[in-house]
Amino acid sequence: MTEDKDIEINLKDLDDICDECKEQDESVSQNLILTGFKLCKSCRISKTIFPI
């Protein structure tokens, strides 16, 4: 029973919506797997260049 709830919570993380700009992009789930952050490609590059 608790495993089903865990799976549902984890699937909500894969909604492809960036935490910074709130845009939907395919690269969000890829970056979530690679870095652990829900950022699109554009926001990831800007965070790398301007980390503040």
Can you tell me about this structure?
The chain has one domain (2-49). The protein is 56% helix and 0% strand. It has 3 helices and no strands. 10% of the residues are buried. The mean pLDDT is 83.
Give keywords.
mainly alpha, elongated
Number of strands: 0
Range of strand content: under 5%
Q: How many structural domains are formed by the residues?
A: 1
Outline the low-pLDDT stretches.
Answer: none
What are the secondary-structure elements, in order, as H or E? HHH
Radius of gyration using CA atoms only: 13 Å
Can you give the mean pLDDT?
Answer: 83
Write a short abstract of this structure.
The protein has 52 residues and is mainly alpha-helical. It has three helices and no strands.
Fold topology:
Blueprint: H1 2-12, H2 27-35, H3 41-49
